[in-house]
Every structure is written in C-alpha cells, then in structure tokens.
Amino acid sequence: MTLSSPATYGELLERMRHESPLVQCITNFVAMNFAANVLLAAGASPAMVHAPEEAGEFARLAGALTINIGTLSSSWLDGMLRAAAAANEVGRPWVLDPVAHFATGFRRQAIDALLQHRPTVIRGNASEIMALAGEASAGRGVDAGDSVERAQASATALAQRSGAVVAVTGAVDWVTDGQRALRIAGGSELMPRVTAMGCALTCLIGALVAVAPQSPLAATASALACFGAAGSRAAQQATGPGSFAWRFIDALDALHASELAAQVTPA
Amino acid sequence: MTLSSPATYGELLERMRHESPLVQCITNFVAMNFAANVLLAAGASPAMVHAPEEAGEFARLAGALTINIGTLSSSWLDGMLRAAAAANEVGRPWVLDPVAHFATGFRRQAIDALLQHRPTVIRGNASEIMALAGEASAGRGVDAGDSVERAQASATALAQRSGAVVAVTGAVDWVTDGQRALRIAGGSELMPRVTAMGCALTCLIGALVAVAPQSPLAATASALACFGAAGSRAAQQATGPGSFAWRFIDALDALHASELAAQVTPA
Amino acid sequence: MTLSSPATYGELLERMRHESPLVQCITNFVAMNFAANVLLAAGASPAMVHAPEEAGEFARLAGALTINIGTLSSSWLDGMLRAAAAANEVGRPWVLDPVAHFATGFRRQAIDALLQHRPTVIRGNASEIMALAGEASAGRGVDAGDSVERAQASATALAQRSGAVVAVTGAVDWVTDGQRALRIAGGSELMPRVTAMGCALTCLIGALVAVAPQSPLAATASALACFGAAGSRAAQQATGPGSFAWRFIDALDALHASELAAQVTPA
C-alpha cells in the first residue's frame, strides 16, 4: 500500500467493509448514538464500552480503540487510561480526540495522561491541535476559532513530537505523519451545524486504522475522504441540518470506494 | 386471552395505547433517545431512571421495568439490582436484555446477579441467548454471530430453567415460554444496520408486558410483531439506514392493530 | 427592550444568532444529542459539561447555564450545584428544568438544593410547576397530567416567591415574572410525541437569556416563540413523530425573526 496510489483510500474502505472490525469507542454522551450509526452505515462493528471494570479487558478483543474526552469524568478517564494501556500491550492502534482539552484544568491533566499512552492518531479541530502543540488558539468551548491552515505547522510539530498521525479537520482537512501531508476536500457547510460529526469521524478513523494498523496516515485519510464524499452527497438534497444528518448516514451506506480518490491530494 | 386467537397481538397493542403504561427503562447511553422515541411512537410513557438513589423507589411507580446492560458500570448495576428487587416486591414484570454478557468478566458477574431476580422476559440475539444457556457461541461484541435457528434449543432450555419467556431476535424472531413457541416474521435487513434497535425492542416488550403481566408470551410476541410490521413498512421507502430510522418511528405511530396477526405463527 | 414591542422576540433571536453564545447544558442522557442539535440549528454554541471536576470552572466561561435533572445521580447533582454557584458568582443567568421532581425523594431533595441557587428561569410542564409551587398535581413520571391553564396561579406564586421567570409549557405556553405574563402559541400535537423536546427548549432559553440577561421574561418568550413557530412549520410536512423531529431542526435553522411576534400575546 502506497500513498502515491489514489486507489489506496477506496481499497481501505473495501477492506474495512469486508472485515467489519470491532471498534471500541469511548466517546461522549452526545455522540454515542450518532457515532454508532456512522460506523454501522460505513460497515464497521461499534462497541461503546468504557467502564473501568471492563474497558481494558475489552480493548484486547477489539481491532481498534477510540477515545474522546467530550463529556469526561474521573471514572471515565480511569476507563480510558486502562483501555489505552491494554491497546498498547496487545499492539492495537488507538485514536485520540482531545475535545476542548484547553477549556479546564481537569481536561488539561486528562489529555497529558492520555498522551503518555502514545495514540496512533490524534484528530481535532484547528484550535484543539494548536493548543495541543503549545500554540495560542482562539478556541472556545467545543467549536474551533481558528482555520485549518493556521494549524498546519502545529500539526506537523505535534506529529513529530508524539509519533502520531495528526488530523486537523475543518472546511478542508489536513493530515500529516510529520513528514508527509495530505489534504482532504469535500463535505458541507452543514457539517459543523450537526453535533458530534467530528466525534463520529474519530470513531470511523478507528475502523479504518483497525484494518491497516501499519498505514495510519492512509487509513486516516481514507476515513476523512469517506466523510468528505458522503458529506458532499448528503448536502445536495438536505434542506437543513436535520435532514443533513440522516442523509449523511444514507450516503455513507451508499458510498462507492471509487469516490474516495478524488477527495485526497498531497499537501 | 389465548394464543390461539391471532387477534390477541393487536388487542394487546390497543390496550397498551389506551393505558399508556409508565415504563422504567434502564438502558444504555447509545439507546436512550431512540428507545424513548420508540415507546412514545408506539403509545407508551417511557421514563429513563437508573440511579441507585431512586431506581428502586421509581420501580414501585412504574407498570414495568426493563434492564439492558449495554453500557454497564458498577453504579448502574447497583441501580439495576435495586430496581429489579423492587419490581419483584410489588409484583411488576421486568425484562432483561443481556447485551454482550459473555464479553467480559464484569458482564458475566452482572448477568448472574440480575438473573437471580427472575426476569419475566429475556430478550437477546442468538449469540447472547446461546451463551446464557451455557452453549458455545460465535458472538463478538454486540452483534450476533449465530442464527436464530441455532439458538432455539438454548432458548427453550433457558426458559425452562429460569421460568422466563425467552425471545431470540434476528432475521425471523423466535419466542418461547419453555412449552409453547412462536415465530415472528417481518422486519428488514436494515434493522441490524441501525444501532439500538434491539435495545428499543426490549423497552417495547416492557410496555406490552405492563398491560398483560399474566401473558408475557403473548405480550412479547405482540412487541416483536410491532417491530416486524413497522420495520417492513419503513423499509419500503427507506433509502438507507438513516432514513430507515425515522421512517420506523413514523411507522410505529401509524401501525394498525390489525397488522400484527399476520406477523405471528406458532413455531 | 420592551415587552410592548412585538419585534422584541425576533430581535433577541437575531442577537443570539449574531453572538452565538456558549451555553453550558447539564441535561439528561436522553436529551443531550437532540438538545445540542437544537442549539446549533438555532444559532447557539452548546457545550455539555457536567462533571464535578470542571462544571464550576466551565460555568465561568459560558454565557449561560442550563440544568435539567432528567437522569440525575449524586455525582451529577454535585456538578450541577457547583455550576449554579459559579454562575451566580460571575453574574451569569441560569435556567432550571425540574423534570419529574416530585417522583422520588432523591429528586425532591435535589430540587430544593438547586432552588437555593436562585435560577433566573424555571421551565417545566404544568404538573412540575404546580408541584414546585406546593400544589397537588396529577403528574406521573415525566409527562404532565395537568393543563397549562390550571398551573397559571402556581406559576405566578412560584415566580413571586423565587424571583425567577417561570415558564409553563404545553399546548399553549404561559410565562410570567410574577407581575406580567405572556401566552405563546404555535407548536404541534406531535411535540409531546418526541422525547426531549422540553429539555431542548430549556437549553434554548439558556441561549436567549445569555444575550439578554437583564430581560429574562422577553428572552424566555423568544425561545418559546422559536419552538412554537418551528413546531408549526415542521408539522405541516411531517408524517409522524420521526419525520417531525428532523423537520423541526430544519425549521429552526430556517426560522425568520419576523415570524416570532405573531406567536406571543400578553396574557
């Protein structure tokens, strides 16, 4: 598998649909239902398992793990840390979504602890990635206050420092492993008007990286291309954010692997 | 009320709509919103009350209780056990949904403790019911790896041993009280592509058994027939799992009691 | 801003869309996704932050706070009390939604503790408001058993005693600050058939009161008018509660400020 072949992204989607990987999603209360439906529509098998009593044990069964701190609590953080440790022990990839990690002291401490478990991929909006790289950001609450372009240098620095693939999502997404970078187009202005779109994308990255753990950059780009292509298609018939949400699920289900290549360009 | 009359299932639906029973649903975070909307569309009054501080007190007010271990934690298990004990004390029926109970040690212990409170109905997919009966299963995560047909003997044994009505749901559902058995048709291939369908069905069984606590086999079959009929109707116009989900809610709301009889046949 | 000008309600909506206030919503598990989508469609920026570890710190960042006890637990109550105290310290408005507060002893104690933090607005159904004012009510679970008309005297007494604006929502809404009162029309019979409509409305009141903290009566009426107008519009094309839910989100997004005035009349 090479990034130079545009067919790579579609092949990864087909492989994911064929294997239907079990993806353990520790995500927030707002996103759980939508993220599970996104994964089912795309072809994966989601499992929302987060309790400290079992999160680590379950991580050994799953093909990948995703962790999102949107509605964090101490008990959930405990489950997240156990799951990340277990994923590392058995060599499974895991994806980190640092929602609004700069907003409170509790979140800043949580994200420091999670980063020590070396995520395979980090996905955030521009403000989250900039703040993670130590830059000043205009972030407020869960919405980005900065453009993807402004966050590119931060993303590269973060990728080099952490060893993770870093994805900055927004109007046009940008993903890098610290050396190479890809730009992913598509989507719709309605996407930030629907809650949990980014959280669900993080879960889908988990599904793709589960079937290509050695190629996290290509797997992440494939997930972003799925969202770009399905988002563009859904927007064509949507009459607002309410109709966009279910049309997006239908579009993910109907997505052809051949549609992905056009979404991705080297940056 | 006799099972020999095909009108029974529709009569139970009409009775449920007339009484609009208060159903206490202790279900998982993924299913809560969808399950509440399913119950409202079908005609019941759902209440999601689970905290140990009040779950037992509330169970004395409700017409039925449903318990689903999808996103279990120790605190929630405490609330579940108190609610089940209270339901038994006041003679109210309760329904158990043993989601992926075989996946971790925490779940196995939880399900053992819950079974001691003698559920009125147990609903699961084939893998969950087979594992509950002590059989080897191909279950993985929350999705079934076995066919309903393979689970029939397990369901009968489990019903006889536990005294519960046991429903195995899948392409064609199968429900038994250990002596008699019914087969329920209908539905759509899109149903396993929408998250929390099974969890919502468990809650609807609670609504039907609330109005016919002496006839849990017929009440369960009536709930399964509602899902079969509404699922078939929703699938006629759905263009994918996203549009199926809301069309299913509309179909439950529009369901005629007379549609149920054709879904159910003696097994 | 005066209540005598019918344009007030639309102007507040426009101001809210312009400022896109950050609204901290501590709401129940059933409502979280839908409420976040309602706020995004209306033009606000929702943040679901509730953990005791950060709820108070976050309340200092937000333009308003909303608290809903739908799926209460001890840990969440702790976060609610910290957030309400912090909102008061920094002079931010906050909105209380006392879901089924009469149902259990745990809820009764919780609501007493929350009321001591002097909410800016209280929104409930008729049974909830009557019980809060010390009247006998026909409430059962989360659904109202009384008419809005029956609750008007209770609402006025509660507003005078608590200093809060009190909104009673139902077929025709009624809101008062203890001196003046407004009646808000519109909506649809499908609204009580969709879960979390009232909970989402509470969050939208938070968004409006965030941009007009000195005019909580007008801000609350503006939020109720948004629901009335969008509900009427959504009902025109809905074929059941499933299609109503997403059409309602689309209608909020498409709402013209000029539509609000006709919904509100002095009571």
Structure description:
Three copies of one chain form a homotrimer. Chain A is built from ten helices and nine strands. The first copy, chain A, is of the alpha/beta class and 267 residues long. Chain A has one domain (8-183, 196-266): Ribokinase (UDP-N-acetylmuramoyl-L-alanine:D-glutamate ligase), CATH 3.40.1190.20. Chain A has a nine-stranded mixed β-sheet with strand order 2-1-3-4-5-6-7-8-9, with helices on both faces. Chains B and C meet through helix 2, strand 2 and helix 10 of B and helix 5 and helix 10 of C.
Proportion of helical residues of chain A: 40-55%
User: Superfamily at the CATH H level of chain A?
Assistant: Ribokinase
CATH class category name of chain A: Alpha Beta
CATH overall fold name of chain A: UDP-N-acetylmuramoyl-L-alanine:D-glutamate ligase
Tell me the number of strands of chain A.
Answer: 9
Quickly describe the structure.
In chain A, 46% of the residues lie in helices and 13% in strands.
Overview features:
homotrimer; UDP-N-acetylmuramoyl-L-alanine:D-glutamate ligase; alpha/beta; globular; 267 residues
Secondary structure elements and their pairing?
The structure is a homotrimer of 267-residue chains.
Chain A lengths: L7 H12 L2 E5 L5 H11 L2 E3 L7 H5 L4 E5 L5 H16 L4 E4 L7 H11 L5 E4 L1 H7 L19 H11 L2 E4 L4 E4 L4 E4 L12 H14 L5 H22 L3 H14 L9 E3 L1
Helix pairs in contact in A: 1-9, 2-8, 2-10, 6-7, 8-9, 9-10
Function (chains A, B, C): Catalyzes the phosphorylation of the hydroxyl group of 4-methyl-5-beta-hydroxyethylthiazole (THZ).
Catalytic activity (chains A, B, C): 5-(2-hydroxyethyl)-4-methylthiazole + ATP = 4-methyl-5-(2-phosphooxyethyl)-thiazole + ADP + H(+)
Cofactor (chains A, B, C): Mg(2+)
